[in-house]
Amino acid sequence: QTRSYHEKVLDHYSNPRNVGSMSKNDMSVGTGLVGAPACGDVMKLQIKVDPSNNTIADVKFKTFGCGSAIASSSYLTELVRGMTLEQASRVKNTEIAKELCLPPVKLHCSMLAEDAIKSAVKDYYTKNPKAKQTDLGMSGGSMPKIEIEQVTTTRDTGA
Ligand code: FES
Fold first, then answer.
1. Is 39 annotated in the active site?
2. Based on the structure, what is the number of domains in the chain?
3. C-beta of 69 in contact with ligand 1 (< 6 A)
4. 32 CB under 6 A from ligand 1?
5. Quick check: is 149 in a domain?
6. Please, which pLDDT band fits residue 38 given cuts at 50, 70 and 90?
7. Does residue 143 form part of some domain?
8. 20, 44, 89, 103: which could join 60 in a potential S-S bond, CB 3.0 to 4.6 Å?
């Protein structure tokens, strides 16, 4: 019994799917940029949304991190393509870790992928508030933990 990475990790690591990036300025693109405090690794995940049904039409990622983080993001891109934003924001890192057979010490690597997709969906909603209303209705939903630089400033009216 070797202690090497599981073959699924190696497959995604040596042949990562959907590497790349999209224009942040595209209103149909949501960008998630997250970091893992435990190790300093960083993941950027972008989704392109079909506004007619709020599903993910395309996904790209760039990960500066370990093999498990790269494999997690690669697998995540395959997983969320075609999902609704609502479904994608409910993807759990445990699902990714299970598929890739990640050992406990590498769980935070898959957490990075969960944070990244939540953050990308949140960014899309910030850019397209109407989509959020449609998806979440009156429930309000739950807010992702990681904030990215999407600060809305309200101007003082000076009245
Ligand atoms: Fe940090 Fe894997 S060691 S993301």
1. yes
2. 1
3. yes
4. no
5. no
6. confident
7. no
8. 20
Query: ipTM, 2 decimals?
Result: 0.97
Tokens of 144: 């992702």
Nearest-atom index, ligand 1, CA of 106: 2
What value does the mean pLDDT take over residues 70-87?
A: 97
Examine residue 116 and state whether it is found in any structural domain, yes or no: yes
User: 142 or 77, which is more confident?
Assistant: 77
Instruction: Please state, in angstroms and rounded to a whole number, the distance separating the CA atoms of residues 90 and 25.
Output: 25
Beta sheet of 42-50, edge-to-edge order: 29-35, 42-50, 55-64
- Which among 25, 119, 109 is positioned nearest to 73, based on CA atoms? 109
Tokens of 24: 């942040």
CATH number, domain containing residue 87: 3.90.1010.10
Distance 65 CA to ligand 1 centre (A): 6
- The whole domain housing 26 covers 7-136
Question: Is 109 part of the annotated catalytic residue set?
Answer: yes
